[in-house]
Design a protein that fits this description.
2 domains; 170 residues; 9 strands; Lipocalin; globular; 38% strand; alpha+beta; 3 helices; eight-stranded antiparallel barrel
Length: 170
């Protein structure tokens, strides 16, 4: 007769061997705190991608109070081409002060002459990627790299990969 305690112990050991490496891997991804410095600007702001979508896009990753957030700021064209990018960090500070939960907010955020839209969402980790809800059926993925990140949005046929350059004040 087999001992039922042996089966439970074996199942617990198997689960630990599967789950713990994944948790450890995700925690390693959070060790790189440089992703929270500065902000990210979409490659092609004030260029063809912006003219096609009618806005410039900026992104900020936050890690405060034990929570991790992503903010996507959409500033409409043609106004966006006149915005001094030196105020973008201050806009993101005001966004964080104003918003404490997942939201879409349209405001001037104290620095803009015209209203912009921000999407503010919690994010988590899956393997070496950041995942968050981005308004589609599947979550968006952020893949950090050296000096930039890639936002991967799910599409009907294939994924859309959008490069964001890391901007850090010196």
């Amino acid at each position: 007769m087999k001992n039922p305690l042996f089966k439970v112990n074996a199942a617990a050991l198997f689960t630990a061997l599967i789950v713990l490496p994944g948790i450890s891997y995700a925690l390693n991804a959070t060790d790189n705190t440089s992703i929270f410095d500065g902000y990210y600007a979409r490659e092609g702001n004030n260029g063809t991608p912006s003219r096609t979508l009618h806005h410039n896009v900026y992104m900020k990753l936050y890690a405060d109070g034990g929570q991790q957030w992503v903010a996507l700021l959409h500033i409409p064209l043609p106004y966006a081409s006149t915005v001094d990018e030196a105020v973008i960090p201050d806009i993101f500070k005001n966004i964080r002060k104003q918003i404490n939960s997942s939201a879409f907010v349209r405001d001037t955020f104290g620095y803009l002459d015209e209203e912009a839209t921000v999407q503010f969402e919690r994010f988590g980790y899956m393997q070496d990627k950041i995942i968050f809800e981005c308004g589609s059926l599947s979550p968006c993925t952020i893949k950090p790299a050296d000096g930039y990140l890639e936002l991967i949005k799910p599409g009907m046929i294939n994924e859309h990969i959008i490069k964001y350059n890391h901007i850090v004040a010196q």
